[in-house]
Structure formats: structure tokens, C-alpha cells
Amino acid sequence: MTQSPQRGPLAGIKVLELAHVMAGPACGRLLADLGADVIKLERPEGEDARRMAPPWHGDEAAGFLMMNRNKRGIAVDLKTEGGKAIVRRLVDQTDVLIENFRKGTLEKLGLGYDQLAAINPALIYCEISGYGRTGPYAEKGGFDLVAQAMSGLMSVTGEAPGRQPVKAGVPIGDVSAGLFAAVGILAALRERDKTGEGQRADTSLFEASSAFMLWPAAMQIASGKQPQPMGSAHPLDAPYQAFEASDGWFIVGAANQANWLRLIKAMDAQYLQDDPRFNSNPARVQNLSVLIETLTPLFKEKTRAEWIALLDEAGVPTGPINTVAEMLDDPQLKARGMIATTQHPTLGDVPTLGLPIRFSKSETQIAHPAPRLGEHNNDVLKEAGFSDVDIEAFEQEGAITARRDG
């Protein structure tokens, strides 16, 4: 199926994605949403994310569909001479290459940065790895869970000290590495606008996860004390956490003195204003356990909806702790276009999350579903200048899958 051209601020930028599962595809997904023409190159049997299921949409893994919308897809065996020739030809016409193989893998195939930059000196070659391409861990493979552990994130996530370590409920190392990679790519493209030269960009799951540790790192550096897990509470502000109403949990964000005074007024608990344990933010942080014990019975007197209405009216930051289903049905996200739909050629409408960026002038779109395996072989190869005879020869060699467009 031939796709209509992408629209957006990156329209005209061509990206070759040699990446699998999460971090690299997250980067490619963002660039595609911003209008880049992202060609996802998979091995002939498809990348691992196609088999990370259930759940399924028909015969497609739900996670793969979410991570790879707005891209075109080709299936190429990089171990064949034809497969290498395809990549070299595509690179000659490509602005950005994204890869997240182990160190040295593409170099052994003749497709490393130095080898491809000789073909296209303007190429931005982005590497996403577990730990970075230099340093004592450079040879190790990386996974999100390990990055969360080593970054210190799991030491501050969870209910309380001494409990089992807890990871974030989403693969924050993978997704943040993809985001930082996209930022690096955009910066490198801007530099290329000035110099005409491409370059290598290198980030990792470990570094990306560590970069999110701003508050804990600042606290450790300043105090020399290890920050501890505090559930939903905040180490520097109080009350700033989840509380239980009579029918469920919600968030109270009284993170400064003004909001604290608004909160206790809304709770009809102004008598707490003069309590020396709670009359300043440092005092409330120091006496957090007593503060929670004091407020919890009061919050249990009303429903979650009643408290949210009262605190909204009082100007105190608040919100429900939504389930994923409730998030997907939220009217604010719907109004902002964060709940979108792609039209899949065999599955029909496939809901997906939208792009969390709005522009006053640039237009973006989420119009195309994740590609079927090898779906755009013909389109991409013909655009690169290969003939029908060439494509047939690639198929016979096993350099590409035999599947054709349509």
C-alpha cells in the first residue's frame, strides 16, 4: 500500500530505522509523527516486538502497532550482499539512521558509522544502546529494567525503605532514551544546516534513566544522604501525594504554602494553620507521617469526586488516579488529540496515542498504521532506484522478503 506523504515540521527528512523493540522505534515514531519519512528495516522474520504478545489486534501484536505507526516497512536480511547493497543505496538518500544493535554488530556487516559516512558525509547516525558506545560497559547489552535499577530509580520508587524494589510501571529507560535520541538528532540536523556535515549521536538507556534522577541526585549531592522511596509522596513538598477518599484514591498537590492554606480551608480544617508541625513546608515535610495520619481520616469523609470538585474550586492542584481505561476516555486528552485512530488495511480502525506536541503553524498527522512485514519493499526500493529486475534478484537471493506492496 502506497502511503500519502507525511505532513509536519520534519516533512522532507528521510530516516532509516534499523532498530527493534522499544528505544529505537520510540525515537523513529516521534520523528515520523513530526513528519519525517521513516523507513523501518526489519529482518525477514520480523523484529521481536511482533511477537511480544498477547494482547493482539487480529494477528498483529498490540505493542508493535503502538510503537510503529506512521512508518513504512521493509524486510531485509543484512547478512546477504543484496541486503547490504540495499542499505548502502538507501543511506545515500537518507538524512538520519537510527540503530540499537550491540556495539560492533553493524561495523562487522560493513554498515557502521565510518563506513556509511564515507557514502553520505551528511548522514546523522544515531546509536541507542544499553550504556553508550564508550566506557567500561560499552560491550554489554542493555535492558530497561537493568537501566532503571542501575540509575538509582528503583532505589527511590516504591512504598517505603526495606520493601521489595519497584520499577516504574512503564519502560521509562527505553522511552526516555528514544526521546533523548530524537533531541540529539534534531540538534545534529540543526548543526548540519550550518556546516553541511553529518555526525554521530550516541545515547543509552542507562544515561537516559539517570538523567531523570534530578531531585534525588541533587538531594544526595547536597546532603550526602540516600533518598528513600516514599510511595506517591514528595521528598521536598507536603502534602503532595495520593490520599484515599471514601471510594478511591486521588491526588492532592498542595506543594506550597498558598496551596496548603487553600487546602485546609476547603477541608474546613483551618485549625491546622497554627499547628507548629504543619505551619510551614519544611515543618510538614519533617512531620510527614503525622500529617498523613491527620489528613487521611478527613479525606475519607467524602468521595473522590466530591474532593476533586472542592479542591478544583479552591484552586488546589488535584486529580483522580485513573486506570488506563479511564485515561483513554479522558475528555481533555480527547480534546487535545491524544487519542487517535489509524486505519489498518486488514484490522480496520486501530486506536493509538497521539502526539503530545501542538504547533501554532506546523501541521502534523497520525494517519498511517504500523507496516505489515515487508509491506513497502517495492515502493522503497523503487524510490531508491532499483528496478523490477533488481527486486526480483533480491527476492531470489533472500535479501528481502517476497511480499509485495498492496
Note the gap between the termini: 4 Å
CATH fold description of the largest domain: Rossmann fold
- pLDDT average, as an integer? 95
CATH superfamily of the largest domain: Crotonobetainyl-coa:carnitine coa-transferase, domain 1
State the domain count: 2
Strand content: 5-15%
Helicity range:
25-40%
Strand order of the largest sheet: 5-2-1-6-7-8
Q: How would a crystallographer describe the biggest sheet?
A: 6 strands, parallel
Q: How do the SSEs run, as a string of H and E?
A: EHEEEHEHEHHEHHEHHEEHHHHEHHEEHH
The CATH architecture term of the largest domain is: 3-Layer(aba) Sandwich
- The stretches of 5 or more residues where confidence is low (pLDDT under 50) are none
* CATH class category of the largest domain: Alpha Beta
The secondary structure category is alpha/beta
Basic shape: elongated
Helix count equals 17
Radius of gyration: 25 Å
SS elements, strand count: 13
List its salient traits.
six-stranded parallel sheet; formyl-coa transferase, domain 3; Rossmann fold; three-stranded antiparallel sheet; 13 strands; alpha/beta; single chain; 2 domains; 406 residues
Explain the overall architecture.
With 406 residues, the protein is an alpha/beta fold. It has two domains: 14-212 and 330-397, Crotonobetainyl-coa:carnitine coa-transferase, domain 1 (Rossmann fold, 3-Layer(aba) Sandwich), CATH 3.40.50; 240-244 and 249-320, formyl-coa transferase, domain 3. It is 37% helix and 15% strand. It has 17 helices and 13 strands. It has a six-stranded parallel beta sheet with strand order 5-2-1-6-7-8. A three-stranded antiparallel beta sheet has the order 9-10-11, covered by helices on one side. It has a two-stranded antiparallel ribbon with strand order 3-4. α1 (23-33) crosses α7 (172-195) and α7 crosses α8 (205-211). The longest helix is centred in the middle third of the chain and has 24 residues, at 172-195. It is elongated. The N and C termini lie close together (4 Å).
